[in-house]
Design a protein that fits this description.
The protein has 174 residues and is mainly alpha-helical. The protein has a single domain, classed as Cytochrome Bc1 Complex, Chain D, domain 2 (Orthogonal Bundle), CATH 1.10.760. It is 35% helix and 5% strand. It contains five helices and four strands. α2 crosses α5. The chain starts with a helix and ends in a 7-residue tail after the last helix.
């Protein structure tokens, strides 16, 4: 592991911790009351073309780093007909996406430009990406896992983020 990889992981972890520290932990959740963790990462499956599938698998393992807490839901203003780049970056920031992802610079996760380039050619690219954001994923971009973002981020906002990410394919986003 190179020093740059270690540095990126450390910075990503610090940013993620600071983003998570703003959560309200005063409300009891099943996990805090001795229940099982609700969030899970799906096992890796592929479509006919070899692309990762968005379908969650039974027996998926718990998300690392959730510490048994049920995430709070990220709400934003109702969806408009056309989301601007600034609105989508604001949503991504408030949803915690930018703790691990940037448009053109790798952090903990892949750049959104790379995600757009990889999935845009797929016939069901939108559903694959929505599934990855909603359910989490592992093994698609190396050894790093992405935790499930639902129910903390609403389904509508997950769809908006997926559409925004796919719209980046072929653009200069530096």
């Amino acid at each position: 592991m190179t020093i740059n990889t270690l540095r990126a992981c450390l910075i990503g972890g610090i940013v993620l911790l600071s983003a998570c520290s703003d959560r309200d932990t005063s409300t009891p959740t099943p996990a805090r009351q001795g229940g099982e963790q609700a969030a899970a990462i799906p096992e890796q499956t592929t479509t006919e073309t070899g692309a990762p599938s968005a379908q969650p698998q039974e027996g998926a393992s718990p998300v690392a780093g959730t510490a048994g807490e049920a995430p709070s839901v990220v709400e934003t203003a109702p969806e408009t007909a056309t989301d601007t780049r600034e609105e989508m970056l604001k949503l991504a920031r408030s949803s915690g996406c930018l703790s691990c992802h940037q448009l053109d610079k790798p952090l903990v996760g892949p750049t959104w430009n790379d995600v757009a380039k990889k999935y845009r050619p797929e016939k069901n690219a939108r559903m694959i990406l929505i599934g990855s954001i909603h359910n989490g994923s592992r093994g698609k971009w190396g050894r790093m896992s992405m935790p499930a973002q639902s129910p903390r981020v609403t389904d509508t906002n997950i769809e908006r983020l997926a559409d925004f990410i796919l719209s980046l394919a072929g653009q200069d986003n530096s």
